[in-house]
Design goal:
Layout: E1 10-11, H1 23-28, E2 30-33, E3 37-39, E4 44-50, E5 64-71, E6 74-80, E7 89-94, E8 102-108, E9 112-115, E10 122-124
Parallel strand pairs: 1-9, 3-10
Antiparallel strand pairs: 2-4, 4-7, 5-6, 5-8, 8-9
The chain binds fe (ii) ion.
Length: 125
């Protein structure tokens, strides 16, 4: 039963193309914007937006609770959000040592956990 429950496990859109996403996927898939190349150890900005392809509701009964950023499987940062007063469109400042893809995760209080598509990033010495 769990595999059919959206609140179980990690949801991910089947296609990165918004044209081929369902409305649920458009509203929940985090979209990462980051430089394609950075210098090792130097801070840079990464933005993560939920609702890039279709706005997600932001009300007391339905909202994005948090957004997390990872480098591969390494946790980098997290932002907790409240409904109405904060928007699921955040900026992180990070510095990387290794070129693992950036991945964002978010949790909607009604529709569970969602993962972005990975964004490759080159780390120069
Ligand atoms: Fe939702």
């Amino acid at each position: 039963m769990c595999e059919e429950d959206i609140l179980c496990g990690l949801n991910k859109a089947k296609s990165e193309s918004a044209d081929q996403m369902t409305d649920l996927e458009k509203k929940h898939t985090p979209v990462i914007k980051a430089p394609s190349k950075v210098k090792k150890g130097e801070p840079f900005e990464v933005s993560v937006k939920v609702g890039e392809h279709m706005p997600h509701p932001n009300e007391n009964a339905h909202y994005i609770e948090w957004i997390e950023l990872y480098s591969g499987e390494t946790f980098l940062a997290r932002v907790d959000l409240v409904p109405r007063l904060a928007a699921p469109n955040v900026k992180f400042t990070v510095a990387l040592d290794h070129a693992h893809p950036l991945i964002a995760k978010e949790r909607c209080n009604l529709h569970g956990l969602w993962e972005s598509f990975p964004v490759d990033i080159e780390v120069e010495e």
